[in-house]
Amino acid sequence: MAMMMQTIYSFKSVDHSKGNESAAQVIRDALAKVLVYYYPFISEQGKLFVNCTGEGVVFVEAEANCTLDDIGDITRLDPPTHGKLVYENIPDPNNLQELLPRLLELLPLLMAQVSTLDLLSTNRLVFLQLHMQVTKFKCGGFVLGLCINHCMFDGIGAMEVMNSWGEVARGLPLTKPPFLDRSILKARNPPMVEFTHHGIVEVEDISNTLDIYNQEELVHKSFIFNSNKLEQLKAKAMEDGVLNKCTSFEALSAFVWRARTRALKWKPNQQTQLIFPVEGRSRFDPPLPEGYFGNGVVLTNSLCSAGELLENPMSFAVGVIQNSIRLVTNRYMRSVIDYYEVPRALLPSLYATFGIST
């Protein structure tokens, strides 16, 4: 979870000229108040932990020389435009050489994406928890861009923070105060790994996938699946009568998984893996308390050969995904937590793995 998640929120001006001049100050003042409730956490040394230093968070104000309409559909921004709306403190390339030894040392503890880092005098690698940027446009509208460390919370936690932030900005009390005790999800002593967690182990790449990435130009594309298209996918998945039900997520995930596998032209015996997070807050026994401020999701995985995935009807892929979701029980999630307490090798390459998140 040591990765930075970026989101943007767009706010148009009612009269297209004025009304939001003080937006940045209002947002900043409300942030200062809500952070009193959502303060960082400290855990044991020797693993990733949050050090509560009281130094605050990064807040940036910016002005654009265009209107919101000029940048088009904000839900389909290209990466360069998106990057101008979210502040991210990328380290100086000249300093990466001295950071590399520490990065290699910490690789077993970190997820694949590492960004927004610094090095303290104590030689610890530091991930800033929260960056935000308010960009004001000529039309009077503004965009709030957030860059949040996923170590802090999951999507539900992020939305609860945003709701609390908005309530404070309006002078209202918090309707859902955060539950800050993360010890309810601590590992058992001794750890009991009861399941094989394929999603975080190496899947051998026998199809030279890395060569494809190096030889082909990668382009950014967005595809919109409206309700009608999702219904068509679900009907396609159930047309052979194998499945009794199918959700939009299952149908779309199966469709994209198959499409990617076909595009990569993998060998039929190439193992292909789909990993995705499953909401676990309600699946724990007992369920996590309301307002739990942390990560209440767990990764599960679907694994089969490329030949099986493409030669069978779509219902096969959906069925594999459904089985992976059913696997996520209280026992399974506790096993995942314990697994992370057991020393293990470097993270897998993930070349034969496809990740989906909602």
Automatic annotation (TrEMBL):
An example molecular function term from Gene Ontology annotations: acyltransferase activity, transferring groups other than amino-acyl groups
Assigned keywords, A-Z: Transferase
Cross-referenced InterPro entries: CAT-like_dom_sf, Plant_Fungal_Acyltransferase
Keyword Transferase: yes
Highest rank taxon of the organism: Eukaryota
A Pfam family this chain is assigned to: Transferase
Family assignment from sequence similarity: Belongs to the plant acyltransferase family.
Protein name as annotated: Transferase
Natural source organism: Macleaya cordata
